[in-house]
Amino acid sequence: MTRIPPQPRRCPHDLTAYEAEESLEAIMQRMGRKFFSTADTTTTPEPDAPLTPAPPGREEPVPSQTPIQAAPSSATPPREGGWQRLGAVLEDVVASPASFLASVAPADLPPSPPGPPPAPVRPRSTRGAQGRRATSAKQTLPEVVDDDARAPTRHEIAFLARQLIQATLPHKNPGDVPVWRRRNGDFTLGIRPGVNMHTGQNFGYPYGTVPRLLLFWMTTEALRTKQRRLELGDSLTAFMQQLGLTRQNGSPGAKRSDARRLHDQMQRLFRSVISFEYVGKVKHAWLDMHVAPEGMLWWDALQPESTTRKVNWIQLDERFFQALTSAAVPVDMRILRSLKHSPLALDFYAWATYTAFQTQQTGRARSISWALLHAQFGAEYGTVKDFAKKAWAALQKVQVVYPALTVVRVRGGLKVLPCMPSVSMRSAGLS
After folding, report:
1. Which region holds residue 302: left if phi is over 0, alpha if psi is between -120 and 50, else beta?
2. CA distances from 330 to 226, 232, 345 (A)
């Protein structure tokens, strides 16, 4: 007995070419219109054949069709396959989709009842800490976000020394330490607190947003007046307005009120000693500067609205005055006021506009690692990973009010693409 070899099992969904042709023809017939013809001739509808569906209960009249005889030839042309004829039909569908839909639309179905109205979209909750952080920058300074195309006026431009961008002040109170320092490559910024000779105790280190706003104001006034002596006015409330602080933030006697914080941070900053130090392979240079070795403050933090008989003033150290005015970077004062609640955001804004200026000059992107940024801005944030998370959140706040900034995250750091600085040198009068 001859053994018949086993045949491969065929999936029930696998169709032969003939079965596929017949199945497609059956499907098209159920749709209400015959798209295939088993004859070797091709039929075309009359030009004015109606395509609208028939009324319910009546069959749609089929337009008269005239067969077109194929041209005589000595050889019989091969029979056209179902897939080829389907392609021709689809070409007709693409050419006139409205006619195709009208021809296959069911005419005896009632219109579908209107559905219920869509549920209103609930706004994203901002009760959590993340929601507050996401909306704080937008709500603080709406004129910058809504009118960011308007360039700042001369009165809305502030400045900061380049060295204070390369390395920044503490974000938090360092506590009772002999010296505080921050490093950026070969450059090191060091701060020593001043001593109150009346009590014998030091004033402490300047930290947070208030001394940063003070440094912006001091650099701007030094450039504007070209004088070491800076007058702060006769009213603490008026001076607070120049810095973007508000009198309504806390009662005057409260520990966290703007008036109390400003008075305390002015003492810390004006009496401190700031050092710039460069250490290279063969170079070692340093500069120790008293911020304001002379001054007079008559203000009372408990009565910020009262005016004094004499003008409050400070006189900058000659070397500190030269450091502030020799290499100043322009910034937008409106953006400073919008970011005044975050010292890290203030630092990154000044760094971003200075870095954008560098990319504009060279036409090349600039990359920097999280480790270097951690040493430059946030050594007190613990690990580099923790700092990177907080730094990226601060940069997102900066981008809200500085949309021209183009910064992307890369592996292990950031990359600033060539873009415009927040304030151009020409509009700042430095070109």
Report:
1. alpha
2. 16, 21, 16
Helix axes 258-270, 236-243, angle to 10 degrees: 80
Distances (CA, A) of 378 to 51, 193, 371, 387, 424: 74, 20, 10, 7, 28
Give the residue among 11, 141, 193 at the shortest CA–CA distance from 401.
141
Cα(422)–Cα(244) distance, integer angstroms: 19
Report the distance separating Cα 304 and Cα 268, nearest Å: 19
Is 181 in a helix, a strand, or coil?
strand
- Distance, in Å, from the CA atom of 305 to the CA atom of 239, rounded to the nearest integer, reads 10
For residues 141 and 152, the answer to whether their CB atoms sit within 8 Å is: no
Mean pLDDT of the chain: 76
Lowest mean pLDDT among 184-193, 232-241, 389-398: 232-241
Q: Has residue 72 been placed in a domain?
A: no
Nearest-angstrom CA–CA distance, 216 and 208:
13
173 with 214, same domain: the answer is yes
Q: Rounded mean pLDDT of 85-90? A: 50
304 contacts 230 by C-beta, under 8 angstroms: no
Q: Which two tokens stand for residue 371?
A: 């480790």
Q: Could you tell me if 278 and 391 lie in one domain?
A: no
214-224 burial by CB neighbour count: b if 16+ within 10 A, else e? Answer: bbbbbbbbbbe
State the sign of the Cα–Cα–Cα–Cα dihedral 232, 236, 242, 244: positive
Q: Is 420 in contact with 358 (CB distance < 8 Å)?
A: no
Cβ partners under 8 Å of residue 280, min gap 6: 186
Classify residue 79 by its DSSP letter.
P
The reported pLDDT for the residue numbered 59 is 47
- Looking up residue 385, the CATH number of its domain turns out to be 3.30.1370
- Are 178 and 317 part of one and the same domain? yes
Mean pLDDT confidence for 239-258: 71
Task: Supply the range of the domain harboring residue 402.
Answer: 341-431
Residue 57 domain flag: no
Which is nearest to 144 in space by CA: 152, 155, 136, 134? 152
pLDDT score of 322: 96
Name the more confident of 360 and 87. 360
| 274: nearest Cα among 186, 384, 337, 182 | 182
Residue 322 structure tokens: 């030269």
Length of the chain: 431
